[in-house]
Design goal:
It contains 19 helices and 29 strands. With 697 residues, it is of the alpha/beta class. The strands form 4 sheets. The chain has a 20-stranded parallel sheet, with no helix packed on it.
Length: 697
């Protein structure tokens, strides 16, 4: 029985949510027919994420036409297009009680926008309108302007991710001019320039209740910023202002500084990617001095130097409630870091601090260590792409000792050696909440790795550990294998681009009874000095052979499932592609000397990784449970192989002739021993098998 038949008699239904299904156009047609006369008093209807399409919208619009009392309608993520929008507009035309309408992510263009405008013109009680992520241009914006002109109760308007330019912004400014109750306005990711910004400024000047304004990812420039500063000057209730990615420059920053002076409730300010420079930073610092409620400040990617950092330090000094500070990708240097350390000293609630890509050395790191010593709530710290070195690492190790809540630490690209690693190891001993640790692209050797193994030993929540591009050898690999023994949540260990040989790889792959690593762990060892291939390492699954049950999945020891190693670019092989991680789809990685072979890793889908030692012939291999995979060992002729519990696999030993083999408990497998002729065989416990001895016909 289809759903439409099941709801035909529910005449008192008020709330219906069918979102995130795949009812399609046919299902929409069925629902439309039943809803047309049966449910006329519904208040809430959600059909988002359903792939309804334009024809489905046409059918469904007839069913909702009689829902005069509907207050909430969500048709987002349905790809209804212009034709569907035109049909839907007819269905919603009589919904004068509607308060919430979401048509986002629907590929609606200018023609569809014109239709929607006609459908919503009588919705005087509408409070929430979302038309984001469509393809509405200037013409569509002009049409919408007329339709929304009487929406005096509108509180939320989202037209982001469209293609509205200056002309469209000019039209919209007239339509929104009387929306004095508007609280949220999002016009980000459009094509609005300085002329459009000037128009928007006039349209929003009376929006004294506006709390959220997003014009990011446009091109308003310094002239547009100057115009906007006048329009936002009276927005004393504004809490969120995003003007990132707008090429504002220092002149625009100076203008904005005056516009935000009275925004005493401002909590979120994003001016990143604007090239405001030192002069702009100096101007902004004056406008931010009284922003005591600020919680998030992003000035990254702005070419701010030490002079600008010195000014900002004064402007942010009173932001004691700040939780997120991003000054990454600037050029503040040691002098700027020294100044900032004073400004952030009282930010005890800070959770996210990004000072990456800033040319900070050990001197600046020492200053920062003093300024951050009271940040016990810090969860994310990024100082990557600086040059703090061993001395700076030693200074940092002292202040991170108390950061017991830290979850993300990135100190990559910092020229940290063994001495610095030893210092950091001591500072990290209490970071039991850490989930991501990146120390890649440093100069840590075996001694540093041994020290780090002690520091990370208690990080039982760690999921990602990156030590790639260092100088770690076999001794360091062995130490690390002990350090990660209790990391039951570790998913990715990156040791690529080091100096690890077969001995170190075996240390990492060997299983001891007290090591319980997760099934999803991927160990990346590419670009090391490996001669062994993956099947030569101890990474095969452990099974409980004491059980006689044929329910294979009950026999897995999930705490000691096979780990995955990526061994590429070793001296004996020529690598021609990138390595493939677990759970990836449709990826290919191959390296070989001669012949053909293929390998699919555990749980990966449609992934191929090939490698073959010196020799000729064809072969392929699949790990357990990967499904539909085959392997041949090196040698001449044709052969294939499957591990236990895999299905639809076959094995033929190396040698001439044809043959196949399957381990016990596998199904639909075949085996033949090496030798001439044709033969097949199966081990005990398997079903649907046939076999003969080597050399048999």
């Amino acid at each position: 029985m289809c759903l439409s038949n099941g709801i035909e008699n529910i005449i008192r239904l008020r709330h219906l949510d069918l979102s995130h299904n795949n009812i399609g156009d046919v299902g929409a047609e069925c629902l439309g027919e039943e809803l047309e006369n049966m449910i006329i008093h519904m208040h809430y209807l959600d059909l988002s994420h359903n792939n309804i399409g334009d024809f489905g919208a046409e059918s469904f619009s007839k069913g909702i036409a009689s829902m005069r009392w509907l207050k909430h309608l969500d048709l987002s993520h349905n790809n209804i297009g212009d034709f569907g929008a035109m049909c839907s507009s007819k269905g919603i035309a009589n919904m004068t009680e509607l308060e919430h309408l979401d048509l986002s992510h629907n590929n609606i263009g200018d023609v569809g926008a014109e239709s929607i405008s006609k459908g919503v013109k009588n919705m005087t009680r509408l409070q929430h309108l979302d038309l984001s992520h469509n393809d509405i241009g200037d013409v569509g914006a002009k049409s919408l302007s007329k339709g929304i002109a009487n929406m005096r109760w509108l509180q939320h308007l989202d037209l982001s991710h469209n293609n509205i330019g200056d002309l469209g912004a000019e039209s919209l400014s007239k339509g929104i001019a009387n929306m004095t109750r508007l609280e949220h306005l999002d016009l980000s990711h459009n094509n609005i320039g300085d002329v459009g910004a000037e128009s928007i400024s006039k349209g929003v000047k009376n929006m004294t209740r506006l709390q959220h304004l997003d014009l990011s990812h446009n091109d308003i420039g310094d002239v547009g910023a100057k115009s906007l500063s006048k329009g936002i000057a009276n927005m004393t209730w504004l809490q969120h202002l995003d003007l990132s990615h707008n090429n504002i420059g220092d002149v625009g920053a100076e203008s904005l500084s005056k516009g935000i002076e009275n925004m005493t409730w401002l909590q979120h300010l994003d001016l990143s990617h604007n090239n405001i420079g030192d002069v702009g930073a100096q101007s902004l610092s004056k406008g931010m001095e009284n922003k005591t409620w600020m919680q998030r400040l992003d000035l990254s990617h702005n070419n701010i130097g030490d002079v600008g950092a010195q000014s900002l330090s004064k402007g942010i000094a009173k932001m004691t409630k700040l939780e997120h500070l991003d000054l990454g990708h600037n050029n503040i240097g040691d002098v700027g870091a020294q100044s900032l350390s004073k400004g952030i000293a009282k930010m005890t609630k800070l959770q996210h601090l990004d000072l990456s890509h800033n040319n900070i050395s050990d001197v600046g790191a020492e200053s920062l260590s003093k300024g951050t010593e009271n940040m016990t709530h810090l969860q994310h710290l990024d100082l990557s792409h600086n040059n703090i070195g061993d001395v700076g690492a030693e200074c940092l190790s002292k202040f991170i000792e108390n950061m017991t809540r830290l979850q993300h630490l990135d100190l990559s690209h910092n020229n940290i050696g063994d001495v610095g690693a030893e210092s950091l190891s001591k500072g990290m001993e209490n970071m039991t909440e850490l989930q991501h640790l990146d120390l890649s692209h440093n100069n840590i050797g075996d001694v540093g790795a041994e020290c780090l193994s002690k520091g990370v030993a208690n990080m039982t929540r760690l999921q990602h550990l990156d030590l790639s591009h260092n100088n770690i050898g076999d001794v360091g690999a062995e130490s690390l294998s002990k350090g990660i023994a209790n990391m039951t949540r570790l998913q990715h260990l990156d040791l690529s681009h080091n100096n690890i040989s077969d001995v170190g790889a075996e240390s990492l792959s060997n299983r001891e009874e007290n090591i319980c690593l997760p099934v999803t762990l991927v160990i990346d060892l590419h670009h090391n000095k490996l001669n062994l291939m993956a099947e030569q390492l101890e990474i095969k699954p452990h099974f409980d052979y004491e059980s006689e049950s044929l329910e294979m999945f009950e026999m897995y020891d999930y705490h000691r499932m096979p780990r995955q190693l990526h061994l590429t670019s070793s001296p004996l092989y020529t690598s021609t592609s990138d390595h493939t991680l677990q759970d990836s789809d449709d990826s290919i990685d191959s390296f070989q000397i001669s012949g053909h072979s293929s390998n699919r890793y555990l749980s990966s889908g449609h992934d191929i990784k090939t490698y073959l030692p010196v020799g000729s012939g064809r072969g392929s291999y699949s790990y357990p449970d990967s499904g539909q995979g085959i392997e041949t060992y090196p040698g001449s002729g044709h052969s294939s192989y499957s591990y236990p519990y895999s299905r639809h696999h076959s094995f033929r030993s190396a040698g001439s002739g044809l043959g196949g083999y399957s381990y016990p408990y596998s199904r639909h497998h075949s085996f033949s021993s090496a030798g001439s002729g044709h033969s097949s065989g199966s081990s005990a416990g398997s079903g649907h098998f046939s076999g003969s001895s080597a050399g048999g016909e």
